[in-house]
Amino acid sequence: MVKSNLPLIVSLASLSQSFADQGAPSLPPGFHNDLDDISVSAGHFHTCAIESRPGVEFGGGIKCWGENAHGQATAPSGIFVQVSAGYMHSCAVGIDEQVKCWGKDFGVVPEGLFSQVSAGEFHSCGVMKDGSVKCWGANHWGEGAPNGGDFVQVSCGNGSTCGLRGNGLVECWGRNDKGQLDAPEGKVFKQISSSLNFHACGLEYESGDVSCWGWNHREQSESRTGPFVQVSAGSTSTCAIKEDQTVECWGAHQPIPHESLLDDQDMIYDQISLGVDHACGVTADGELHCWKKGSDFGAHQVPLGFAVA
Ligand SMILES: *[C@@H]1O[C@H](CO)[C@@H](O)[C@H](O)[C@H]1NC(C)=O
């Protein structure tokens, strides 16, 4: 069983509770304790986050900022429970469990009820309530052609997709020129994250170690000994939250949450998400912080007064 002192478990317990309160089914059974980027998602050069509603524990409107040349930062109105910012588009799961996407050429979102969604480069995939994965948008490399069966999380990259099955095994499909499909066989994970730049990482269930696969030219796909509680694969770097909720990053030193953190060692995080030149994290106090390196189109500029859900 998962350790009950993990902060993510606490937030998921309340998340399930909130789902129950809404009369909707709870999260999938099992030990998977983390939906991908529940309330903040750093996309290529934009960020989307769910805004908290006063007095309501769960779900909210979406605000996006940063690069918006394709409308990827123009979020629809409505109440959403999970958001994923991709390259030129973004997608989110509504409180009604329908998925909406916005931005450039994202394709046709399938009908049906979803529990999670991920926006990649030119494609998107979602886990349906029955555990199947459906994908839409580009399918040049087979990134939109998952196997059947029971999934609990999906994470879209650039021409590739990885899915986490109910038994904790990871399966990836699409292009494999950098080994981005070569998830370690037989390892049991509880959360995965694909970058838009040919690498992916998973948080191992028992050890809390992070294993990565795919492009490793900047050592972004090195494995790290945990225990960690969440991992996010960025463009050429990887960051993970340790059990003490501080953040550790490796690979090319961009963006720079770890550098910011050096100035403030006490900063502890519940959630982190990496883009290309920026990253965002939700602190244990519930504040949304973002950092940047280089010109990130304002993707790190959290709107004044924004309260993350
Ligand atoms: C995806 O990969 C292609 C190379 O196949 C590259 O040209 C493109 O910039 C990548 N997209 C992103 C968002 O990094």
From TrEMBL:
A GO term for molecular function: protein serine/threonine kinase activity
Catalytic activities: L-seryl-[protein] + ATP = O-phospho-L-seryl-[protein] + ADP + H(+); L-threonyl-[protein] + ATP = O-phospho-L-threonyl-[protein] + ADP + H(+)
SUPFAM superfamilies tied to this protein: RCC1/BLIP-II
Main location: membrane
Domain of life: Eukaryota
Annotated Gene Ontology cellular component terms: membrane
Membrane topology of the entry: Single-pass type I membrane protein
Pfam families: RCC1_2 (PF13540)
Enzyme class: transferase
Leader sequence residues: 1-20
Transmembrane segments: none
UniProt subcellular location: Membrane
Assigned EC number: 2.7.11.1
Keyword annotations of the record: Disulfide bond, Glycoprotein, Membrane, Receptor, Signal, Transmembrane, Transmembrane helix
PANTHER family referenced in this protein's UniProt entry, alphabetically: SERINE/THREONINE-PROTEIN KINASE-LIKE PROTEIN ACR4, SERINE_THREONINE-PROTEIN KINASE-LIKE PROTEIN ACR4
Protein name: non-specific serine/threonine protein kinase
